[in-house]
Amino acid sequence: MNDLIIGMAGSGGDGIVSAGESLISSAAHEGYFAILTKSFGSQIRGGESSCRLRVATTSVLNPGGALDVAVVLNWEDLLRFGGELPVNEATVVIYEEKTGVAPASIPLKCRPTVVLPVPMETMAIKAAGTELAKNNVVLGLLSGWFGLAQESILAGIRKKFARKGEAVLLGNERAFAAGLDYARAHPLDPARPMDAPLSKATKKLLTDGNELCAKAALFAGCKFFGGYPITPATEIMQHLQRDIWKHGGSLLQAEDEIAGVAAAVGASFAGKKSMTATSGPGLSLKTEVLGLASVTELPLVCVNVQRGGPSTGMPTKPEQADLFAAAFSAHGDTVRPILAPISVADMFGITVEAFNIAEQYQTPVIVLSDQEIAQRKEIIDPVDTSKFTLVDRLVPTAEELVNYQRFRITPSGISPLSHPGMKGGNYLAAGIEHNESGAPTASGELHARMNDKRLHKLDPLKKRRDLFVVEGDADAPIGLISWGSVAGVALEAVRAARAEGIKVKLLIPKLVYPVAEDIYRDFFASLRQCLVVEQSHQGQLHRIIRMWVNVPDNFTAMARSGANPIWPSEVVAKIHALAATQLQPTGTP
Amino acid sequence: MSSLCDCATPPASAPLTAKDFRSTLKPIWCPGCGDYGVVTGIYRALAAIGRPPHEIAFISGIGCSSRIPGYTTAYGFNTLHGRALPIAQGIKMANPELLVLVAGGDGDGFSIGGGHVPHAIRRNPDLTYIVMDNQIYGLTKGQVSPTSARGTKTPSSVYGSMEDPVNPLLYVLAYGAGFVAQAAPADMEGMANIIEEAIRFPGFAFVNIQSPCISFGDPDNQLKLQKAKLRKLSAEGHDPTDRIRAMELAQDYGKTLYTGVFYRNPNPAPTYGSQIEALQKTLSPVADDNVSGS
Questions:
Q1: Residue B266 CB neighbour total at 10 angstroms
Q2: Where among A387, A418, A449 does a domain terminate?
Q3: Is B287 touching A (CB cutoff 8 A)?
Q4: Which of B20, B95, B282, B284 to mutate to test the interface with A (most CBs of A within 10 A)?
Q5: Would the pLDDT of A182 be above 70?
Q6: Phi, psi for A471 (deg, rounded to 5)
């Protein structure tokens, strides 16, 4: 096997998530690629918890579909996460014998062929004197049955329990060994060993989207962060809080979302690269200030980690339903660029790009991450920072500082931007409409010219083909469009369908707004059918594209509300259905 | 006056005059508006401080009074209703060298932006917050404001306001502001001196200026009548280091027009900026990006 998906469910204290974390760090150490997604009930502590880990020898695009292995410590807990941990006939089900269910009557709709009751708790108590060591029994079982990272896991256990005293450490080592021995004594038929990693040579990075976003911001030269705690974006602020001072910057955990973004706009006015981060409810609160940044033409990066909405919605679950809010929640005629990463690894480049676009075009830029990308753990290749160039804002020359006009209407629409401290650059920035020097105006003619300047300066973005991924057959009659974390699912599905000989292609916009009409038009040219795959009830990207581009006749959406994962197999099935209609006569000669 | 604050240290070059801070924009204010006096007082205070205009960032919210940065030659930012303080704090954090002035009206500071005031105070950034308090919403033509007296009749309180006013002085004193003063344009010299002193104070300094609205304000509260009502705290023998006495006097807000310094902390707390600077110095700079796996 070169690709293995393990799902585990248990109650708080079972250590299920901790086992998942041990597995992924061991996998990273061995040189595998992997994605770990964790899911919890709404409790702060305790309650049900689960995780799914996808380990592969090559780069992993998404958390995968149905489980290859399900580890069940408690059946109710598994069933609560049913939608996130789908089991089918091919799944190897390992469960706690103590649950008292006979293998033939496990409470699942499907009938997996391999169902293994294991006395995990008994083994833990015997090895370590406490049932708390259960998760190390699980690790032993998984390592034994699937040939996973035995040495690395053991090293991880040693590191974790070293400071808890020799007795605890030995107990947990024995628990792991017990699991390993049990697996060896009860081999799977057929055996299912994981392939060795392709290369151990390169050091891998184990990280998540929020952490990588913070690192990318510092790399891009961010010197100020203003924000407010909100799930699932808080970790961006926390990572920056630890490090930004070391880069000569500063951070404000403000009294509210509005003050957070307001301070960031202030820092940008003062000449520094600056950012804020939030999630849906915070984006709603920040919109007025984002409008101020648009009209005063101040660079600003606003990361919005999407969660289920509206209102409080589902703070711990991903959704792609803030696109309308990001694009349209501003009064007046304004456009602010929206970028969306498609994976944890992509978060670095997208964040750097957001700073570059903000600085170059003197505009707020919204990054639409989502809970999945923000909080899942991913093993990625190290970031090659040498491939990025950093852009700084255009500042006035000495000549331009004589009779300086902050909002001078230039051919590009971009005017040199001074900042306090720069002699001769003194100007009035104002939310009120202004003339080229910054003086307030009520002239309709000037207002129209200034609107034109502010919108027109963003036009070059629509030509940025490097912000779009196109994959597949250029002349395919079937096309898919997908964005954000779901794009990785669509990508895997398109690759699978093409491997079966179906002609299909995929477009992934990382620049989601403004809509790059030409790029969509080119993509649509060969299409007779197009499917937009996304995680929102209305299919928000599907609808926004329609606003700007003439779409093919069969332009449909595969859209569903957040927290209901879209599996690669479902997208493949959808492509099969589209391919089947291609074969039917159209009725026209 | 001794210079307590780095940001107020005058440069060596030719002395600046009030005229150097006056912009060419013509104010939109009504003839007889108190804000004309306030901006003049600010020109004088800034001239006395001596920092050149390009080293000054003047931030305001929305309202008649918030137009004020545009009438100076400083870098101005006429922001959003109620958001001047957080924006100003971001500016000061990003560039601690700047002299940062914040101004707005009573609605801006104590209604829509009221939630920001306590937090600015507890952080203690080295900036000066001037509120032009006229007890009315002037720009929207005369609605009841957070400092309007109970019973005030306006088009939005036709039968009289049913709320007690906010007491701006007590509000900022209660949250621990290190410098709290009140001034009135009827006493230009006194007002200019208070603004200068506020700027020189190292930390958050608050000046409430009773700046009457000629068009919609209380006719009994206009500039011409202000002079007779003024009671200088210095003449009352008030010790500005006595915070409790300051709070007692502040309770007379709306009844007695005290001007002068209510409270000046004799041992100013560390400013937000000084703490940031210390932290930046303590933590060693990093060159490693920690992502390239090297």
A1: 11
A2: A387
A3: no
A4: B95
A5: yes
A6: -140, 145
User: Do residues A193 and A226 touch, judged by C-beta distance below 8 A?
Assistant: no
- List all residues 6 or more positions away from A73 whose beta carbon is below 8 Å from its beta carbon: A8, A9, A10, A11, A14, A16, A95, A96, A120, A134, A138
Write down which residue in A387, A411, A438 finishes a domain.
A387
Binary contact (B80, A262; C-beta < 8 A): yes
Is residue A297 located within the same domain as residue A431?
no
In this prediction, residue A587 carries a pLDDT of 47
Cβ separation B292–A245 shorter than 8 A: no
* End-to-end Cα separation, chain A, in angstroms: 48
Q: For residues A456 and B103, is the Cβ–Cβ distance under 8 A? A: no
Q: Write the pLDDT tens digit of every residue in A109-131.
A: 999 999 999 999 999 999 999 99
- What are the residue ranges of helices labelled H in A31-133? 75-80, 120-128
Please report residues of B whose CB lies closer than 8 A to that of A215.
289-291
Same domain for A248 and A143 = no
Q: Say which DSSP state A302 is in.
A: E
What is the end-to-end Cα distance of chain B in Å, rounded?
Answer: 56
R_g of chain B computed on alpha carbons: 19
- The C-alpha torsion from A207 through A209 and A214 to A220, rounded to 10°, is 100
Quote the ipTM score.
0.95
Please tell me whether residues A87 and A48 are part of one structural domain. yes
Q: How many distinct helices (H) and strands (E) make up chain B? A: 9, 10
Q: Which residues pair with B260 in a beta bridge?
A: B182
B76 touching chain A per CB within 8 A:
yes
Domains for chain B: give ranges and CATH numbers.
13-282 (3.40.50.970)
Which residues in chain B are contacts of A255 at CB distance < 8 A?
86, 115-116, 118-119
With beta carbons less than 8 A apart as the criterion, state whether A89 and A66 touch: no
pLDDT tens for each residue of B131-158? 999 999 999 999 999 999 999 999 999 9
Judge whether A201 lies within some domain: no
Would you call A254 and B95 a contact, using CB atoms and an 8 Å cutoff?
no
Contact call for A421 and B276, based on CB within 8 A = no
pLDDT for res B284? 74
CA nearest to A336, candidates A345, A328, A344, A347: A328
C-alpha atoms less than 13 angstroms from C-alpha of A65 in its C-beta half-sphere: 15
Q: Is residue A196 part of a domain?
A: no
Burial class from Cβ neighbours inside 10 Å (0-12, 13-18, 19+) for residue B105 reads: buried
User: By CA distance, what is A418's nearest residue in B?
Assistant: B75
Residue A531 lies in a domain: yes
CATH number of residue A513's parent domain: 3.40.50.920
Q: Is residue A256 part of a domain?
A: yes
Residue A300, Cα to own-chain centre: how many angstroms?
21
Please report, for the domain that includes residue A220, its CATH number.
Answer: 3.40.50.970
Same domain (yes/no): A560, A490: yes
Residues A98 and A62 in one domain: yes
* Residues A342 and A489 both lie in one domain: no
Contact list, A256 vs chain B (CB under 8 Å): 115
- Residues of chain A neighbouring B121 (CB-CB closer than 8 A): none
- The residue to which tokens 């399900």 are assigned: A70
* Shared-domain flag, residues A56 and A41: yes
Q: Does A474 touch chain B (CB under 8 A)?
A: no
In this structure, the answer to whether residues A356 and A470 fall within a common structural domain is no
What's residue B290's pLDDT? Answer: 67
Residues 6+ apart with CB under 8 A from A527: A476, A477, A478, A479, A552
CA dist A407 and B60 (Å) reads 20
Token output for B219: 């006719």
Type of residue at A150:
Q
- Give me the domain span that covers residue A411: 394-463
Q: How many domains does chain A have?
A: 4
